[in-house]
Design goal:
globular; three-stranded parallel sheet; about 250 residues; six-stranded mixed sheet; 11 helices
């Protein structure tokens, strides 16, 4: 099995940030922390004008948080720290002064949908179905909810949060505003992502910064909001309902 990683490469002024975990790109705390740090540093790197967020391998963009870590939570403080992992990445993306393009090659679940929603321009393949499965185990998409609601609207976010067993197709996600384009293959997606990112690099960096401020207007309280949401999840994950549900994943 391949080792988990977060890596960054720079090509033609585009910073490609790639994460990977062998468990369907489900992300433990250390990988999430590294991802948040890498996004922050890329935002400060003058050699980078535009960022592309992607994951390794072909099938799954991101299966959410690590179930192995989730199962081992035994107190609220640990639970809050665990659920703050995606909160910190979302906030790093929000504060990043550069456009972030999402490259979504496959299915994405839970926190992964939050990452897609936190990009500024998100492109996908037809295989990039989405699901919010948190209600199945007795919690909810509390941390990622604000990012998804911001991008897709309350109605669409509520629909997939309640219908926690269903994968919604990429075309549906496009219609609701999560994806800007849906492509037939990963090769087509990669070609389009590269062309889009490199074209954006020809624009005025200052203008893109000011545009990003407008796009994220009204989210200045997200450091506090997402921390509160993480605490809610950290409390609920200790419930008898959730503990029983998680036994089936051991």
């Amino acid at each position: 099995m391949s080792e988990p990683y977060v890596k960054q490469t720079i090509e033609n002024e585009v910073g490609y940030i790639e994460f990977f975990h062998p468990a369907h790109n489900s992300l433990p705390g250390d990988v999430l922390a590294k991802l948040a740090q890498t996004i922050t540093e890329a935002g400060q790197n003058d050699d980078i004008k535009v960022i592309v967020l992607k994951s390794g391998k072909d099938r799954t963009f991101c299966a959410g948080a690590s179930f192995k870590e989730l199962i081992n939570i035994n107190d609220e403080a640990t639970g809050k720290v665990f659920f703050s992992g995606f909160a910190n990445v979302i906030n790093a993306m929000r504060k990043c002064p550069k456009f972030i393009i999402g490259r979504i090659q496959g299915k994405t679940v839970g926190g992964g949908v939050g990452l897609a929603a936190s990009t500024d321009y998100c492109m996908a393949t037809k295989f990039a179905a989405i699901k919010l499965s948190e209600l199945n185990i007795g919690i909810g998409p509390f941390v990622v909810g604000p990012a998804i609601e911001r991008k897709m609207g309350l109605s669409a976010m509520s629909q997939i949060a309640i219908d926690a067993n269903t994968f919604y197709p990429a075309e549906w996600a496009k219609q609701k505003g999560l994806f800007t384009h849906v492509y037939e293959s990963t090769d087509e997606l990669d070609e389009a992502v590269k062309a889009t990112a490199e074209h954006l690099c020809t624009y005025n960096v200052e203008a893109m910064l000011e545009m990003k401020k407008i796009f994220w207007k009204g989210t200045d309280d997200w450091d506090e909001l997402l921390a509160e949401r993480a605490a809610t999840s950290g409390r609920l994950v200790l419930s008898d309902f959730t503990k029983e549900k998680l036994k089936t994943y051991r």
